[in-house]
Design brief:
Oligomer: single chain
Radius of gyration: 16 Å
Structural class: mainly alpha
Number of strands: 0
Number of helices: 5
Helix content: over 70%
Keywords: Membrane, Transmembrane, Transmembrane helix
InterPro entries: HR_lesion (IPR008637)
Protein name: HR-like lesion-inducer
Shape: globular
Strand content: under 5%
Organism: Glycine max
Order of helices and strands: HHHHH
Length: 135
């Protein structure tokens, strides 16, 4: 049972570790290719939160945000492999921060192809979230 549990953690965490490694290799002065997709979404989130809270929020630097994502995925995945609950917490934090931002199905009308695709991806990530909560 111990080996199969370890193997399961390795396979699950490899998704996070390998994507963190890829993001690290692509990271440059602008934050890498993901920054092109992330900057407009961060701007929309900032505007929405500013209007809801009634307070002007500071700018969110996409490069620092991407570096934080890389850290949470990489360190969280490595710690998760060795059975650390802190690693699970880091991966949960990563999913809680990035999932509503990257899979913004709520900005599209139901029935549109983009809506269905984003909602499906969002629900798959939520399944990972609940799996991590059970660890």
């Amino acid at each position: 049972m111990g080996f199969s549990s370890f193997l399961g953690r390795v396979l699950f965490a490899s998704l996070f570790i390998l994507t963190a490694w890829q993001m690290f290799n692509e990271f440059d002065a602008n934050g890498g290719p993901i920054s092109k997709e992330l900057i407009p979404k961060l701007t929309v989130v900032k505007k929405n939160l500013s209007s809801k809270l009634g307070v002007a929020l500071p700018d969110i630097d996409a490069r620092q945000f991407i570096a934080t994502i890389i850290f949470l995925k990489g360190v969280g995945g490595i710690l998760f492999v060795f059975g650390s609950t802190f690693g699970s917490f880091l991966l949960l934090l990563h999913l809680a921060i990035t999932t509503p931002l990257l899979y913004d199905f709520y900005n599209y009308r139901p029935g549109k192809p983009k809506y269905n695709q984003l909602l499906n991806d969002f629900l798959l990530v939520c399944l990972n979230f609940f799996y991590l909560m059970s660890c």
